[in-house]
Design a protein that fits this description.
254 residues, binds zinc ion, Lysozyme-like, alpha/beta, 5-stranded antiparallel β-sheet, 13 strands, 25% helix
Length: 254
Amino acid sequence: MIPEFNTTLRLSRDQYFLDVGYKNLIGLHHTAGGSAVSTFYWWQNYDQRRVATAYIVERDGTIFEIFNPSYWAFHLGLAGTGGAHDYRSIGIELASEGGLIARGSRFYAFDLVSPATEYTGKVFDYGKRWRNSYRFFAGYTEEQMNAAVELVNYLCIDFAVPRRTPAAHTDYIPEAREYRGIIGHHHVRGDKTDLHPGFAWDTLIRRCDLDVTDFEGTSYLAKRSKKSPSNDLVMIRNNRRKISIRKSKTDRLI
Ligand SMILES: [Zn+2]
């Protein structure tokens, strides 16, 4: 099923790169910002570096397609790679306040304790500080999660992105930048806290039928049960991947 895309926010063509690449990676982020509109507005008007993602998913589940995902912009920020991994990936931002400051029973966004920045939505509590940063984060909404599932499913079919994700949901290792599949920004950057550990990876894995792998892409399922019938499942998945390659992308190159 093709998700419903809102195309009312479109970056102008000088804000991203018009090269069409072979995509084998999806990178998930959160904005640590206000609305999807405000993030778009910032990229469109103030960012000179061509930093953007093809999609922003608003808290109510609206999927904004900011530019054609066959093209690319910088979103992973991997020094020394010349954008190689941005080129082969599709970025998705979840609109979210990100890390929160706790004061008594109240929470505040954007590192600012003020009436205007009080956060009253669902809070994710990691129980301790994550990556020497925040302990509390704005929770991703159920509507966002449903939209993310739909979008990832769609992109895996449309671009034949491998249906797999690292089992270590909150780890960072430099080698993760070579990964092919679905990752969070935090997997490839030790200084990033998006996605935060409240992201429902299990839901994404279940509803997008993802393999769970190490950072080299080897399936844990295959590792655990080399001779068991579940190995067939991996083969079925692999075959499904092969037949899901999109026939033609020409209709998207607009
Ligand atoms: Zn990010």
